[in-house]
Fold:
Amino acid sequence: MYRFLLTPRWWGINLFVVLAIPFCVFMGTWQLGRFEDRVQSHEEAENRPDPGTRAVQPLDELLPVTTESSGRPAVATGSYADQFLVPGRELDDRTGFYVLNLLRTDGGKALPVVRGWLPGTPDGTEVPAAPAGEVTVTGDLQASENTGSTGVNLRGGLPEGQLGMISAASLVNLVPYDVYDAWVTLTEPEPGGTALKPVPAAAAQGSGLDLKAFQNLGYTGEWFVFAGFVLFMWFRLVRREAEAARDLRLGLAADAD
Structure:
């Protein structure tokens, strides 16, 4: 009754099933491993001391920014130069903008410094001037933003002096000097009682159970479902073919030939 399994057509079906099921299991296992890695990273981040409470270190000692150094207090000395306003940023459930100045260090390279946040829009809002002369700033270290960062403006067409994404890549064509591939946000209000509100440091990307982590878990289930579906369809096709062969042998169905 099952001799049809040795026909060329069924050899092709069998080969597909033999290859598809291990592939689905492999992909499901890989996605599960990705989810477990994110869970482990989250647990390590939870057990790690709050980065903001750790000792202040010179900027260059904390670079490049990693999940370990993100949020750590960094100190740098230099003079404020170009200023940019970063619109569309929320703080305390209100929409406003960041005030960002580039700090020219002694080495000539510039560090983006978010001096604070103001409510409203940059247009027509009075922005406190940056301190003049040489200053030493201490702020929480952050990695350059990317297209997946919260609040990033990817539409473009911003007025001159405004910035949609805080990153060395977006600043390199706006200033005539090198920029660090990182930025800091000041943790304390500037001297003089300005209206700028300090911007809390954000958690490092990939260090928490975000949507991507649960997407990995969802993909895990999908791949195992695909494997089960392939096996189910194979048994169904075999059963239907066997029943057709039995009916033909008993004379219950017309010979297809």
User: Anything to note?
Assistant: Strands lie at 57-58, 73-91, 94-105, 110-119, 134-143, 182-186. The longest helix spans residues 8-47. The mean pLDDT is 86. The first strand starts at residue 57 and ends at 58.
